[in-house]
Specification:
heterodimer, A: mainly beta, Porin, 2 domains, 16-stranded antiparallel beta barrel, three-stranded antiparallel beta sheet, 4 helices, B: mainly beta, 16-stranded antiparallel β-barrel
């Protein structure tokens, strides 16, 4: 059983309008149970109730359904685990619904391989309901783990399904490997988004009504005049498309696809040994980094520069003389020109919103995270950040852009966690 | 930075309180954690026998609902864990309910719904000793009740609005046993004189009405003796606001003008009028343009006489022959037009627990007198303006008197039966989280009844 009380504010942000001192509160109740059967089987199930408020709750004139407190029922997990070597975690398979995390250093930023989109490369640090201490992917599918050489090499094989976006149910196979020594850890991974699709046509929406997912290429005697989204093409280019070109111009049209390969690499160095044991916390002085490619293949306009699809995170756990369990400082650099995924949320089109402004000032993100265990049943967390925070509106859709987009934007959160 | 700390005062107050209190009696590492699981279920059956909805007829809304079924079913699971003097209590409820859309409406307004709820999610530290000063600090979400005699009517301090001073007996989902405040925040309770004198310091957050997230500090006390109990309290509504400027909306419907007018006889007088409803006399000048505010202070006083000892012990129930009263002022400060008469912002409740020779656990009869001229909070409900709606109903006096009869009977360890018949501040919720802007029992002939069977499964 757990109770988590979150309180905080978006101190300075922007979403359609200036956001200032926007209260952000959550109460989460978790009731869970574990069971074992023999030496090989384990079962975990948990039910969550989350007290939350729709974003925009402080705006004058909002009708009750857009501001009143809600309770969202969720499952914290529902999985079965089969140990292939009884009473050992060296090799096992787990199946069901569970939070999946591969990078223990990513307390807020990072964990790109599953949490981020491909096309578009949306990065989320919260699902809007779990605001902190949830830098994991809520996976629905299968995970297999194999540990070799006494834990020196660990491998993960995943097959996760798409839970929310059309077409739901597509399968994403993924593989990760990590090498962990006493003083360092390195890891790599790859995930092929929607490689196995039950409705391939929907992975690349291409009906005549899917205009917002269409891109055109207009050629004139071997020179490309335009290659990009039809919806924002110059009028003359649109006219070429409408008339199927002319004697001097050839036109072709294509559609963006959600399917794509993501890659990840990470590394960490553990310099805690430099500190005297009596003042050293177990995670002190770890320096870590993670980078990913969100879609290896280029597509026109939105995805024509692979360097703009590479988020890079780096951080350090600062020593606190055992006063805190952990004090983690992270930074991220992601020079995507886009931030608004309204078309993706509303229509599952694998494109950014072309009419939204280009974001150049949001390339740098930062986050400070800390935990403190006070007693057997009580723990305190705090987080201050300018990250990819998005909040759910009353429709439960997340806001189409991050709320912290400029360097001056930031928020804070405090969590009281009770129970064990 | 100054602006930041000013706007985030409530959060820092909470953290500061915790920083002080938690180490004082922080859970010791010794001792086992004890757990207790409670599972309850209830079934409500009843009817709104006769009601009044001024928003009908029109748009398929029924103006006079009659024999409207009131049914609810719920299952509640509460898990408690305790370690020494620290305990955590969390719960989840699944409620089967029906939205009230007012008549024959879209499916979303009439089909059966299942609503998840969190009845309790709080941590508590207990400290001190009864011999000197004992207390408890609670943080989280929990029902808070200060008046044990208020079975339906009463509990004005936290349940009543300020500007406007509306009253509710139910938020529209759960229909009975709601005479408490669903609080989100922190509470510090202290008791002295062996529990006879109690103080409660509250810091609760606004969860439903604009601006959501504001904190309202409150204090109430009670002094209990064998024969009587007295209590009082104050709540400073929205006094800790993250956006103070938002407490006084500048909308046209929230604007009043004070100025001088000249009538046809040439007499000049100073009056106040709504900005969108100017006077017919000639306006000479404008003295002041003002706006109503959501911020305000509420005060409460209550008393009870415990005459149960006059009854023979073999026929005396624990709550028999208590005579009680509660009065409040919903907004101490006067404002023009809607809030210019403080006596019209004073609900008064009185009641008695009738002896039943132990046939029932309690049989409570309550009456209330509240002479507010208004009862429609549509402007507040939909547009978050601190004014009454007068377009539909104005100068309402037929609803000044309210009554309620409440009974409880514990049949055995597993089953408890409740019954309630009342003409109170009964409101229902539609399919879009909107609670009725006007109580559905608005005249003396309106009333409803409810019967609840409650089962303790574990």
């Amino acid at each position: 059983m757990k109770l988590k009380i979150d309180a905080g504010q978006i101190v300075n942000g922007f979403y359609v309008r200036k956001v200032e001192f926007q209260p952000v509160n959550r109460n989460t109740v978790v009731l869970s149970e574990n069971a074992k059967y023999g030496d090989a089987w384990e079962f975990n199930a948990g039910f969550e109730g989350i007290l939350w408020w729709p974003f925009g709750a402080s705006d004058l004139g909002l009708p009750p359904e857009q501001r009143t407190v809600r309770v969202e029922p969720r499952l914290s997990q529902a999985k079965a685990k089969l140990k292939l070597i009884p009473e050992s975690n060296k090799a096992y398979v787990e199946l069901g619904f569970f939070p999946y995390k591969y990078n223990s250093d990513a307390h807020n930023l990072g964990e790109y391989l599953y949490r981020s989109g491909t096309y578009p490369g949306v990065i989320q640090t919260t699902d809007g309901l779990h605001l902190m201490d949830h830098a994991a992917y809520d996976a629905y599918g299968l995970h297999a783990h194999l540990s070799l050489m006494d834990g020196l090499i660990e491998q993960e094989f995943n097959l996760f399904t798409e839970p929310n976006l059309i077409p739901t149910g597509d399968l994403t196979p993924a593989y990760e490997a990590s090498l962990s020594g006493k003083l360092f850890q390195i890891g790599v991974g790859a995930a092929y988004n929607r490689l196995i699709s039950y409705n391939s046509a929907s992975v690349r929406p291409h009906a005549s009504t899917d205009e917002n997912n269409r891109y055109i290429e207009v050629d004139s005697t071997g020179t490309v005049l335009y290659r990009g989204p039809y919806s924002i093409a110059p009028y003359r280019m649109q006219q070429f498309f409408q008339h199927d070109g002319d004697s001097l111009h050839t036109v072709s049209h294509h559609y963006y696809t959600q399917r794509g390969l993501k890659l990840m690499a990470r590394a960490a160095v553990d310099l805690g040994f430099l500190l005297p044991e009596q003042i050293r916390g177990p995670q002190d002085l770890r320096i870590f980094t993670e980078a990913a490619v969100l879609g290896v293949e280029d597509q026109p306009y939105y995805y024509d520069d692979i360097w703009r699809r590479i988020p890079v995170m780096a951080g350090i756990n600062i020593p606190t003389f055992k006063y805190l369990d952990i004090l983690s400082f992270q930074m991220e650099y992601y020079r995507s020109l886009f931030n608004n995924d309204e078309q993706f949320i509303a229509n599952s089109y694998p494109v950014w919103n072309p009419s939204a402004p280009r974001y150049r000032r949001d390339d740098w993100k930062w986050s400070v995270y800390t935990e403190k265990t006070v007693g057997k049943l009580f723990k305190i967390y705090a987080q201050v950040a300018n990250d990819h925070v998005r909040l759910p509106e009353f429709t439960t859709n997340l806001s189409a852009t991050d709320l912290t987009v400029k360097p001056s934007h930031w928020y804070y959160l405090i969590r009281l966690e009770f129970g064990g | 930075m100054k602006k930041f700390f000013k706007a985030s005062r409530p959060e820092w107050l909470l953290v500061g309180l915790l920083a002080v209190l938690a180490p004082v009696d922080a859970p010791a590492e010794t001792g086992d954690v004890s757990h207790k699981l409670t599972v309850k279920s209830f079934i409500d059956f009843g009817h709104l026998v006769s009601g009044d909805n001024p928003y009908g007829p029109g748009a398929s809304i029924d103006a006079h609902p009659s024999m409207l079924p009131l049914n609810r079913t719920g299952v509640t699971v509460i898990q408690e864990s305790a370690l020494n003097r620290f305990d955590v209590s969390v719960g989840l409820t699944g409620l089967i309910w029906w939205p009230y859309g007012g008549g024959i409406t879209d499916p979303i307004e009439r089909v059966m719904n299942v609503k998840p709820m969190i009845p309790i999610a709080r941590a508590r530290w207990q400290f001190g000793s009864q011999a000197s000063v004992a207390g408890a600090f609670l943080v989280g979400t929990f029902p808070y009740k200060y008046n044990p005699d208020a079975k339906d009517l009463g509990e004005y301090l936290y349940r009543g609005g300020t500007y406007p001073g509306f009253l509710t007996s139910t938020e529209g989902w759960l229909l009975m046993n709601r005479a408490s405040n669903y609080s989100h925040g922190a509470l510090l309770s202290l008791s002295q004189m062996n529990g006879k004198l109690k103080h409660n310091f509250s810091l609760f957050m606004e969860t439903q009405y604009y601006p959501v997230g504001d904190f309202s500090p409150g204090y109430d006390f009670s002094f209990t003796q064998k024969w009587f109990e007295i209590g009082g309290g104050v709540v400073l509504n929205h006094y800790l606001s993250s956006r103070p400027s938002a407490l006084t909306p500048k909308a046209a419907d929230n604007t009043y003008i004070t100025g001088h007018v000249k009538d046809s006889a040439g007499t000049v007088s100073e009056i106040t009028w709504l900005s969108n409803s100017p006077p017919t006399d000639t306006i000479k000048d404008t003295v002041k343009i003002g706006h109503w505010t959501l911020k305000g202070a509420k005060v409460m006083a209550r008393a009870a006489l415990n005459l149960g000892s006059l009854l023979p012990e073999n026929i005396r129930g624990s709550e028999d022959l208590r005579i009680f009263t509660e009065v409040a002022i919903l907004g101490v400060k006067d404002y023009p037009i809607y809030y210019n008469d403080r006596t019209r912002r004073m609900p008064i409740m009185a009641g008695i627990n009738l002896p039943t020779a132990k046939l029932l656990d309690v049989l409570s009869l309550q009456v209330e007198y509240y002479k507010s001229l208004y009862n429609d909070i549509q402007q507040f409900n939909v547009n978050s303006l601190p004014v009454w709606q007068t377009a539909t109903t104005d100068s309402v006096t037929r609803d000044d008197w309210k009554w309620s009869i409440y009974a409880k009977k514990s049949v055995n360890k597993l089953v408890t039966v409740y019954a309630q018949a009342a003409d109170d501040h009964f409101r229902l919720t539609d399919g879009h989280y909107k609670v009725s802007s006007v109580p559905l029992t608005s005249s003396l002939s309106d009333w409803y009844y409810l019967i609840r069977l409650e089962f303790a499964l574990r």
